[in-house]
Amino acid sequence: MIANYGYTDGSGEYYISINTSFCAECQTHPCISACPQGVFEMITDDYDEPACSVKDSFRKKLNYTCSTCKPARKSSESPLFLPCVQACVNRAIKHTW
Amino acid sequence: MILDFPQLISQWETLPVHVFTAHEKGEILTIGAGTASGAVSGAIQGTASGAVTEHWKWPEQSNVDLSMDWKKAARITAGIDVGSVSSQAVVLLDGKLYAWSSVRTGSSSPDSALKALNQALKNTDLTLEKIPYVVGTGYGRVNVPFAKKTITEIACHARGANYMGGGTIRTILDMGGQDCKAIHCDEKGKVTNFLMNDKCAAGTGRGMEVLADLLRIPIQEIGPLSLKVEEEPPPVSSVCVVFAKTEAIGLLKSGWPVEKVLASYCLAMAERVTALLNRIGVEKDFFITGGIAKNIGVVKRIERILGISALNSALDSQIAGALGAALFANALLEKEERGKS
Fold first, then answer.
1. pLDDT band at residue B202, thresholds of 50, 70 and 90?
2. How far apart are CA B184 and CA B268, in angstroms?
């Protein structure tokens, strides 16, 4: 399942997209500890499968929460520079902005 | 603050107040708000007509299939969807729809859940105690005291839409009371992709209720009225409920007929939700759930923008979440029974 967490507001679209079909195979879940803001958590989804998710408390302020990691990434650089994206070996995490 | 009469008169035009009138049993009949003069005149107008009509209030509904006998059913399950604006209950007998209801959510989620279930069962002798598995879903799902399990409304709407529209449905748009969800599902109704915008009430049922109240038009008539324009007006520039309301007042004052204002608002709402849908893409077949699916003015405009038609269902689109929850309950109870044997 592809889960999109985030929002659209007047300034743009701020979604973190997670392909949770990789989470069941993943044993270590490095994305959880990679995020300096602690945005991610492991949950059991509605189909009783383990899934990485964005914590409820962050879903409406991702633009601000993730801003600490964003300035270091210049637009010409690879999005892999983001710690969460880099940590997931399956490349299951994407940011829309 | 309580003022004596001379004080009230001296501050008549500027004092912000609420004025209530009540009959002899103490029940509030009318409410006026604003400046002192406006509030009193509003309350008096309300009293003169007996009670203030609340145009946003959509009718509560329930239905039971009396051709089915719950006493013969091997599995009785229920799903309760406690939304921010409405609550639904669905009761299944062996996975088949038996009874359902849709009521307005009150200030207490547990009470609303119970009210919805009681409404669904009102013409039967089936009671909550005889339902072994209840699944709660929706905004207030954690506050359904008699639910054995809670499941997100995203999964429940997909499952419910799959039952209502068939296994060919791949894209679901749920337009709820205070949020909007775009969902992709497989042939079994399992979610494969979803996107939710719950940051503001734009493009939701609550926005439509605010507009109904502002224009004093029953909410059920907004859709058909909005289609009575000869030429489609531009959408209101802001779909933020607060700003759209202000803009609608401005448009009415500038001479726009009510139908044109409604068309403008419905179009803005349709554009807003299609932008959400386009983020994940639209695959055939397409289905709309939630209260706004009953607003033909919004649905027709969504269909025009997307270039595809939404599938119709004989069932009420608003019960999709509760229906999905009841289907989950049925599957979970079956699994539980298999585990025991």
1. low
2. 23
Whether B154 contacts chain A with CB within 8 A: yes
CB of B155 within 8 Å of a chain A CB? The answer is yes
Q: Which of B193, B276, B328 is opposite residue A2, by nearest beta carbon?
A: B193
Distance CA B171, CA B192 (A): 10
The CATH number for B61-166+319-340, chosen from 3.40.630.30, 3.30.43.10, 3.30.420.40, 3.50.80.10, is: 3.30.420.40
Cβ pair B199:A9 closer than 8 A: yes
Q: Number of C-alpha atoms within 13 angstroms, CB side, residue B169?
A: 30
Contacts A–B by Cβ distance under 8 A: 43
ipTM, 2 dp = 0.85
User: What is the token pair recorded at A55?
Assistant: 């914590």
> The domain B191-310: what is its CATH number?
3.30.420.40
> How many angstroms separate the Cα of B258 from the Cα of each of A93, B179, B189, B294?
47, 26, 40, 20
- Closest Cα of chain A to B166: distance in Å? 20
